[in-house]
Amino acid sequence: MTKYNKITPEIAEKLQAIVGEKRFFAGDAVKDDFSHDEMPIYGKYYPEVVCEVESTDEVSQIMRLCCENNIPVTPRGAGTGLVGGCVPLCGGVVLCTTRMNKILSYDMNNLVVHIQPGVLLCDLAADALTRGLMYPPDPGEKTATVGGNVSTNAGGMRAVKYGVTRDYVLAMTVVLPDGRVMELGKTVCKTSSGYSLLHLMIGSEGTLGIITELTLKLIPKPAMDVSLILPFSDVETAIASVPQIKLANLDPQSIEFMERDIVDSSAAFTGNSVFPTVVNGKEAGAYILVTLVGDSEAELTVKMDRLGELAESCGAYDTLVVWTDGLKKDVWAARSAFLTVIEADTKLLDELDVVVPVDRIADFLVYTRAAGKAEGITIRNFGHAGDGNLHIYCCANDMELDEFKRRSKAVMDKCYAKCSEFGGQVSGEHAIGHAKKQYLHESVGDTAFGLMQAIKQVFDPKGILNPGKVCTNVEEV
Amino acid sequence: MTKYNKITPEIAEKLQAIVGEKRFFAGDAVKDDFSHDEMPIYGKYYPEVVCEVESTDEVSQIMRLCCENNIPVTPRGAGTGLVGGCVPLCGGVVLCTTRMNKILSYDMNNLVVHIQPGVLLCDLAADALTRGLMYPPDPGEKTATVGGNVSTNAGGMRAVKYGVTRDYVLAMTVVLPDGRVMELGKTVCKTSSGYSLLHLMIGSEGTLGIITELTLKLIPKPAMDVSLILPFSDVETAIASVPQIKLANLDPQSIEFMERDIVDSSAAFTGNSVFPTVVNGKEAGAYILVTLVGDSEAELTVKMDRLGELAESCGAYDTLVVWTDGLKKDVWAARSAFLTVIEADTKLLDELDVVVPVDRIADFLVYTRAAGKAEGITIRNFGHAGDGNLHIYCCANDMELDEFKRRSKAVMDKCYAKCSEFGGQVSGEHAIGHAKKQYLHESVGDTAFGLMQAIKQVFDPKGILNPGKVCTNVEEV
């Protein structure tokens, strides 16, 4: 295991010379924010210094210096992760990319955009729309950086139609741990030109290199969309409709599910009751929210009618069309508030972001609830019914922290084991960070985990880049 | 460099014991076919033995034995490649997967199919259709194995709408060079669970492991499709229309281009003149062939009308609708015959399979023709206008082989350099094999090429699996 060095005053001076004093922070000047991400349960780890970089060249200089001196470097975007991926477990440098936030250029002939990695998802999405284009990946956390999205291969709600972040990354500039700069990919969508280092880099959580520029594929903005709320008696019936919806050639943009409790909490939180709780005299226990896109009202009407008939045959109480802009806004505001609502209700929180085959979603939810109950932990959830990616939260309010951690871990251990049994994977989009390493290892097995470690060694023989994440272990400082 | 051993009678006996004598061939019993693929210009290399495997376990046993004894193993599917990827440069074992040709099961809830790697593309496509499903990747060579398609990340004509083979591989079973068996991926479409070994394996041309089972994503079969032929005066005008077509929100399934000479040859060869040569009194010099898919005739009619108007504004002489089954069959038969037609016309042949940004296609074609002319080599081509993937052939009839090779290499050197200058990549879908290694190295540079070599070393420290391909060098035997 590499023995890291501390940052000496001499090295600090060199780092400061690279980024300039306004973008260099050490000691007490390091904000508390840099010690954690958005999942506080995993603790705080402070960097020795923070460098806010503005260019590939600065990143390269920093990496060269830190590599020569065995100083750990942890890249960080907006810090919106949930598994500790950007937390500097071993101190050293936090290399913050949020100032690299320029949309560099659009290429309208090839439908791509060139950006710096610190551009926020919401900013890219909005800017693309002004050109009549859409950046399809749509993870729930809109204030994440796109570089962070690429590093975690974030998925989001539209994955069922458009795929995930991976599918939109055509090229990138990467700084390797020793400071060398490498270009991967080109402005082309089809390639078979050697091992795909590009795809290896996507989802590698800043452990193999630091992304400093991105070329992303865009698509023409769909002419119009409509959402439909399908209320069901319970989550099992709701989820059972999903394969039918997927088979029906409606090509939905998203198929989300939500249970009654989270809808009620969201209504209380936002003050908007957009999801009907009683339909034709029957209590709704769960909902499917489908979004369709199309070229014209005529085309969408045909699709809506077909979906309505299908939903009825699957046991939906009704099909509520969300067509007006105002109603759409309210529905998606309610949907987007789910995590905030859970956080607002809960003092102690931990989460699973598993992905299971679509037809195992309901069974898995039932299992997690029972596992939670056995440990006295409240389970809340919502997720992407179209792709099997579930966001499941272990919640408690009246419990000591250590007690919560112990019980929550017991729930996690059971649930990740069940996820493997069901043919699922550890993370759909939040990635591994340092919080989920054990479960990744258990899930993929020794052979694949060993290959990941050997690949890490190829890219980063000194182990200085984002240590302790994905597949490497460190002694925490 | 590893010193490989020859197969001794003792080892041959062990190999024969693994697969049984009916599926084991040595010496004169090895068919000539196993010494080459479909591009004869790259020479013949004979294996010492051929093993026709039928199971993961047999592959694992063979790899363990060969690894212990430093014997090279070259996996081979249907042998339809064009860059020598399945050719046993160093002798040893050819491990033939064509008997692993079972479609194992469909999972209609999750829209996936489990298959063995030796299933032919045409068989999978046809079988899926009988379930109302479509396997979207559609490379021109329908008798390739799907395992071969995955190993080269084959793209095909529908890539512009549906993406490439990579986008449909959810999971695989892999035998590593030392015989260990590894499962990668699951029946899920969204994952962020460690480095993507799955994506590293896709397109690695059988150099990192041998695929013995695949889980592939399917989609509901589109209700209907229609193709439209757009004749233009010349290839520059034709290609200039492509970005406009892509921006128009028509979501075409394919956008192919073809020049007049290849259309004429194809008509002479097939006896069917489906592409009009004179339109409204004007000679057509090039064509764009667009296929649209949709749910109903009404939906497609709206799209066709929009495409027609757009095509006219881009200088198309007309828009010819290919709607009837008979006409569709003729048009696609003509399109599918292009390579066969070139082969039939030509004694000496070599090819480029570059991919360039869509707006550089015409410039690149003009350049290649000039480069060919300078060396006295005839250039013929066709390709995928929607994604920039060009199939370009160096042809000659009255030339000595060595002279052709020398001149053809001079053309290639120039064209690959120009491709890099234009921001393209060495191969769109045919991959690297041993024929294109030099150009891959020049294109990606020392850093990326060195990382590929180090990754190969991680998976295959003895270098016994498919030696001399993608990024490794061997002394040819």
Mean pLDDT of chain A: 96
Number of strands of chain A: 20
Tell me which protein chains meet in the greatest interface and how many residues each side has: A-B, 89 and 89 residues
Q: How large is the count of helical segments of chain A?
A: 15
Q: From the alpha-carbon coordinates, what is the Rg of chain A to the nearest angstrom?
A: 23 Å
Query: How would you describe the oligomerization state of the chains in this entry?
Result: homodimer
User: Main beta sheet of chain A: strand number and arrangement?
Assistant: 7 strands, antiparallel
Strand content of chain A: 15-25%
Give me the secondary-structure category of chain A: alpha+beta
Strands ordered across the widest β-sheet of chain A: 17-12-16-13-19-20-18
Distance N to C terminus of chain A: 14 Å
Uncertain segments of chain A are none
What coarse outline of chain A follows from CA principal-axis ratios? globular
State the share of residues found in helices of chain A, binned by percent.
Answer: 25-40%
